[in-house]
Structure formats: C-alpha cells, structure tokens
Amino acid sequence: MAAPHHSHATLNPAPEPPAVSAAMALAHRKYWRFNVALIATLMAIGFVVSFVLPLIAPALAEVRIGGFRLPFYFGAQGAILIYLALIVVYIALMQRADRRLQRAFDADASAKANADASAYTNAGVAAPATPGTLSR
Q: What is the full DSSP assignment across 117-130?
C-alpha cells in the first residue's frame, strides 16, 4: 500500500495578494482590457495581411505601386512593413497605457499616504517619516 501523496502546494498555500483600492483595481482592469483589445485588433490586422490579401491579390493585379503590381508589392515588401508597423503601434500604445497605469498607481499611493497621515494627525500621534524625507 502506497503512502498518501501530499502536494507541496496544499501544505503551504500561496499567500494572499495585498489588498488594493477600488480605484487601483479599476485601473488594472482598464489596463488589461485595453491590452487584450489592442492585441486582438493587431492580430486581426495581421491575419488580414497574411491570409485575406493573398486571396484577393489576383483581383488587385492591375493596381501598381512604384511600378510594381500590387500583389508583388504585398508579397515582397508590404506585409513585412505592415508587421513592423504593428509592432511599433503596439509598443507606442502600451507605453502610453503603462504611463497611465503608473499615474493611477502614484495617485493611489499619495492618496493612501495622505489618508494615513491624516489618521495619525487625528489620533494626536506624529506620522512616521516616509521614505526619502528627513524626520527631526
């Protein structure tokens, strides 16, 4: 008869994540919703460039760009340039979203610090020094 198997995870459950404010939870939800929507949109554009344009390329054979027929341009250069543009768009939009999330985090941290300081003041106790400040 074999000994019962105990998983390490059941003996030591993962600690609970720290509580976050409602504003921060909303900021995180907006951030990830934007991220998923952006990825889905860019992947859809990539799908169209990879699979739909080659299917309709014969119908576009009369259109010329720089002296080349449009299907040749798509196959030789256009698709690669569009993929690079998708990467650049993703980087630029996600950096903007990261900055927005950082501003929400900073605002939440300062609001929490102000609330903590006012709680200490109302209790008649000196507030503890925050990192980066000198206490005298």
A: HHHHHHHT-PPPPP
Number of structural domains in the chain: 1
Q: Are the C-beta atoms of residues 90 and 57 closer than 8 Å to each other?
A: no
Model pTM?
0.67
Quick check: is 130 in a domain?
A: no
Does residue 74 belong to any structural domain of this protein?
A: yes
* Domain-embedded: residue 85: yes
Q: Cα–Cα distance between 67 and 12 in angstroms, integer?
A: 68
pLDDT, tens digit, 9 for 90 and up, residues 11-70: 787 888 778 888 889 999 999 999 999 999 999 999 998 888 778 878 877 877 777 777
41-46 contacts at long range (C-beta below 8 A, 24 or more positions apart): 42/86, 42/89, 42/90, 45/82, 45/86, 46/82, 46/83, 46/86
Structural Rg of the chain based on CA atoms: 27
Asked if 46 and 83 touch (Cβ cutoff 8 Å), the reply is yes
CA separation for the pair 92, 74 (Å, rounded): 24
The Cα–Cα gap between 122 and 31 comes to 36
Residue 11 lies inside a defined structural domain of this protein: no
